């Protein structure tokens, strides 16, 4: 009887331990993904930003023109860089998900130009859906922001 109780206890501990670890790892993984994304953006490198997305990704910006796949996503970011947007920063609000699909919500801020061409702060909210890659890293499957 004691062996059966001990076995059940060990199974319960093993079953719950990865969940606790996964939550901590998920937050850290999203923080790393956000930092890499911001770094690429702040280099004004549309190819490097686009490398953060899976091949079938969708980008849904405030323009309401959905960008699908690497070529369209890269074109969107290159256009944004050409308009003078700089200094991007993502600040995590929440994360969740499982070992394959992870979501993150964030506040974003950047500096753009106003109608007179003078620097102006921009900000909003963003939602990200990531796919975990074979190496454990996260790549964007879906991104939307306002």
Give a verbal description of the structure.
The protein has 146 residues and is an alpha+beta fold. The protein has one domain: Nuclear Transport Factor 2, Chain: A (Roll). It has a 6-stranded mixed beta sheet with strand order 2-1-6-5-4-3, with helices on one face. The N terminus is likely disordered.
The largest pleated sheet is described as: 6 strands, mixed
Strand fraction band?
35-45%
Question: What are the segments in which pLDDT stays under 50 over at least 5 consecutive residues?
Answer: 3-21
Number of self-contained structural domains: 1
* Mean of pLDDT: 88
Order of helices and strands: HHEEHEEEE
Number of helices: 3
CATH classification, class level: Alpha Beta
Rg for CA atoms: 19 Å
What would CATH call the architecture?
A: Roll
Helices and strands: which structural class? alpha+beta
Count of beta strands: 6
CATH topology: Nuclear Transport Factor 2, Chain: A
**Bulk shape:** globular
What is the first-to-last residue Cα distance? 59 Å
Helix content: 40-55%
Oligomeric state of shown chains? single chain
Strand order of the largest sheet: 2-1-6-5-4-3
Give me some keywords for this one.
globular; disordered N terminus; 3 helices; 6 strands; about 150 residues; alpha+beta; single chain; 6-stranded mixed β-sheet; Nuclear Transport Factor 2, Chain: A
């Amino acid at each position: 009887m004691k062996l059966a109780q001990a076995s059940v206890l060990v199974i319960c501990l093993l079953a719950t331990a990865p969940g606790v670890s996964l939550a901590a790892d998920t937050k850290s993984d999203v923080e790393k993904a956000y930092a890499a994304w911001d770094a690429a953006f702040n280099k004004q490198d549309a190819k490097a930003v686009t490398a953060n997305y899976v091949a079938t990704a969708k980008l849904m910006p405030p323009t309401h023109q959905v960008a699908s796949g690497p070529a369209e996503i890269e074109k969107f970011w290159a256009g944004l860089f050409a308009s003078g947007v700089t200094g991007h920063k993502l600040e995590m609000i929440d994360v969740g998900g499982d070992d394959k699909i992870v979501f993150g919500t964030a506040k974003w801020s950047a500096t753009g130009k106003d109608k007179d061409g003078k620097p102006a702060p921009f900000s909003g909210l963003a939602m990200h859906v990531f796919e975990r890659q074979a190496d454990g890293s996260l790549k964007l499957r879906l991104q939307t922001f306002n």
